[in-house]
Amino acid sequence: MQKIDYFLLASKNHSENEVIIGGIISVNVKGCYKTMSLPNCPQCNSSYVYEDQAMLICPECAHEWNPNEEVVDEDALIIKDAGGNLLQEGDKVTLAKDLKVKGSSQVLKIGTKATIKRLVDGDHDIDCKLDGGGDMMLKSKFVKKMS
Ligand SMILES: [Zn+2]
What we know:
Layout lengths: L17 E4 L2 E4 L22 E3 L2 E3 L6 E2 L26 E4 L3 E2 L6 E2 L4 E7 L6 E5 L4 E4 L4 E3 L2
Antiparallel strand pairs: 1-2, 3-4, 4-5, 6-9, 6-12, 7-8, 9-10, 10-11
Bound molecules: zinc ion.
């Protein structure tokens, strides 16, 4: 996330809808300070978030949070390969064994390379793009992460 330090130079001399923030003129419609450098509110997705010292504050739902605190994604899937290594989207893997493709006579050979596109909560828990082939849902326990 981009962080920009600035001084708030708002004064009553400026028109109500115009606030100068660090030299960037930001005009808004709701009477809140709008800057392009701050993230939207994580609760209501408002773009009128403003900064107060280390905190970010949403004027629409009154949510306050510290952008420097890491947000723990409780929905993150823990998916491991055949060797117990954590897998993430974008990881390159190889097949740890020959796999028969359901509903066809095709066999994916051990050592076939693939890239994980998406982690999925299910029986086949990784959505992969095979090297030189199509997309395939695989089971993480049948792949090995490439180092
Ligand atoms: Zn909000």
